Amino acid sequence: MNLLRVFAVLFALLAVSNFLKPFGLGEDTGFVFLGRRLTGTPNLIAGWSFAIFLAGYASCLWHGKAAALPLGVAFAAYVSANLFLFTLRMPPATGGAAVFGIVYTIVALGGAWGAVATMMRSGFADLDPVPGRIVLRSFALMFALMALSNALKPFAYTEDVGFVFLGQRLAGAANTTAAVTFSALLATYAASIWLERKLALQLGLAYAAYVIANLVLWNFRKPEGADAPLLFALPYLVSAIGVSSGAAALLWRHRGRLA
Fold it and tell me: For 25, phi and psi rounded to 5 degrees?
């Protein structure tokens, strides 16, 4: 069995683990999504969504399909962001818990990025000769992740979770309506990028402009005490603008082949 198939088995086992999380095997076994441990319905949605994703990723790795590389890049980026946010949002660990956290972080990052590195060395980037497709599909998966995040916002599983629309954090029916609407739009955007449809460029330009406007307006309209530490705010700004504007720029560059 080659190394990629070893990774495939590991990700398949992780898929099973995520599938089991909604069954509440322990208080600390809920799915951790973007740095927060979920419970109830959000735990079910996120856990099973990632179980399906990882099962597909494992299958692509096992069979050596080109789609495995963008799946791997997106998953590794998510793991990095998730660990960073979890570290910021949890109290500092001590003793054995601190050692476990360090070991877990090394294993998680090593496994996620190690699979990507192995695919690169194995020539997966050459399996799809279409320029920019691997990066575009990685972007598509990130927007699918954002769609999932928005789909969970109506559950308001913490006090600071609510859809931010034009600089204002929503609650109640307004939060549900906006979150579900943007979740559907982002899911459509992700699918359009993956399938290389002209709709992707239109949605991409509009979404990139919206993200910048939303960030600027939030700076003026955010509630008192909502200031985030620089260690969190700066990476968030760079990633939010970089992903939305980067995807739009890449779509514009390859607009000639969009069907």
Answer: -75, -15
- Output the CA torsion sign for 59, 62, 68, 74: positive
Q: Could you give the CA distance from residue 117 to residue 115 in angstroms, rounded to a whole number? A: 5
Structure confidence by residue, pLDDT tens digits, 47-65: 999 999 999 999 999 999 9
SS3 helix, strand, coil % of the chain, rounded to 5? 75, 5, 20
Residues of the chain whose pLDDT is less than 50?
A: none
The residues, any chain, with a CB within 8 Å of residue 235's CB and separated by 6 or more, are 84
What is the 8-class DSSP label of residue 31?
A: -
Q: Please report the pLDDT score of residue 232 as a whole number.
A: 64
Determine contact, residues 251/197, Cβ cutoff 8 Å: no
Q: Report the C-alpha gap between 168 and 175 in whole angstroms.
A: 10
What pLDDT shows up at residue 102?
Answer: 85
Q: Which of 173, 160, 207, 168 is nearest to 187 (CA)?
A: 207
What confidence score (pLDDT) does residue 130 get? 85
Cβ neighbours around 213 below 10 Å, total: 12
Domain edges within the chain: 1-129, 130-259
| Sign of the dihedral through C-alpha 237, 239, 241, 244 | negative
